[in-house]
Amino acid sequence: MVKTSLPREEYLISGHFACPGCGAALSMRIALKALGKKAVLSIPACCWAVIPGPFPYRNLEVPLLYTAFEVTGASVSGLSEGFKAMGEDAIVVGWAGDGGTADIGLQSLSAAVERGHDFIYVMYDNEAYMNTGIQRSSATPEYAWTTTTPVGKREFWKKGWKKDMVGIMVAHRIPYAATATPAFPEDMYRKFKKAASIKGPKFIHILSPCPPGWRFPEEKTIEVARKAVLSKVFPLYEVENGRWRVTFKPARFIPVEEYLRMQGRFRYLPEDAVRYVQETVDREWERLLRKEELSKEGPIW
Amino acid sequence: MPYPWQELEEAPIARVPTSEIKRSSWRTMRPVIDYDRCISCMICWKFCPDVAIRIEKAPEGHKYDEIPVIDYDYCKGCGICANECPVKCITMEREEVGP
């Protein structure tokens, strides 16, 4: 037997409708390896509403309920309370994209977390409305090209920094919030295992690269996600009851330019914009390390 | 008295697995593993978004007892396996004939 770093059970069925090199499909595969047969998914309109296919088809070995765009939070609240009333042991998972979480589903997610139902909410973040054709969302990073923030002779790129969803969730005093990416599958697996063992609302933010939307060749999916972590654009950390912990501290960082230049959506970026992004991610990284240091004394919400 | 929802018809449940559809027609490049150089690290298996790489028993006399085998019925040819292979033993070859 060859040793594998992840369990061999598969809950994702091949032949699904995701684009070649899809980061979201891979994230689901790793997440379900950790959650296992007990998972029950609730999915609003997002790429994952398309990936399982039209009616007679399914591509998961676990139950899946489709909901409307703005009600994932309400749906997982109801599912989790219903299973509790029936005395059934199930892990309720809300699986929404960045539009369904940071823009449209934010109010129902906020309410569900505030009420404190027992569920895991996963935001797989491809940084725009990729399913409908690359429209900007509030989780789109600054300077990114999308079809609604076009760049040409005049530069209408996305203005304003990406919305910090883990920060918003931590402000709700959530028991567990974390970031993960499929480029570090063991780290993601461990975070899902931990989330499944904690009672109450849990939030996991997954950076899931999208080859057609980010404009990079499809074989680079893992490389892009890995460079996002190594260049401090997407640090891997978890917040457990207000205790911040950076789960992966790279020994050597790469300049943010290396991450930006391999994606077509940033190809036109002027030098001063790259410098601005570098300064901002450096500052954010320092802030994160300070939070980790300070929260050893007491929780930081 | 029954609740109103108890009189409803059963909701449609999707039962046909997507593995009924062969997804190979999406492919333009075909990954081919050179088993002489493969170290059976299973990194390609770990990163496949289509679950198209399976771990199978190696033939008699192979240096490892298990090898990754690409299922060409479902491989979409994204090339993540070739890009991530630590010993670069997977090559992407052009598909010449349709499936």
Task: Kindly describe this structure.
The complex is a heterodimer of chains A (301) and B (99). With 301 residues, chain A is α/β, with parallel strands linked by helices. Helices cover 37% and strands 15% of the residues of chain A. Chain A has 11 helices and 9 strands. In chain A, strands 3-1-4-5-7-6-8-9 form an 8-stranded mixed beta sheet, with helices on both faces. In chain A, helix 1 packs across helix 7. The model of chain A has no long low-confidence stretch (mean pLDDT 93). The longest helix of chain B has 5 residues. In chain B, the strands form 2 sheets. Chain B has a two-stranded antiparallel sheet with strand order 2-5. Chains A and B meet through helix 1, strand 2 and helix 9 of A and strand 1, helix 1 and helix 2 of B.
Number of strands of chain A: 9
Spatial separation of the terminal alpha carbons of chain B: 58 Å
* Residues in helices of chain A, as a percent range: 25-40%
C-alpha termini separation of chain A = 45 Å
Name the assembly state: heterodimer
Q: What summary fits the major beta sheet of chain B?
A: 2 strands, antiparallel
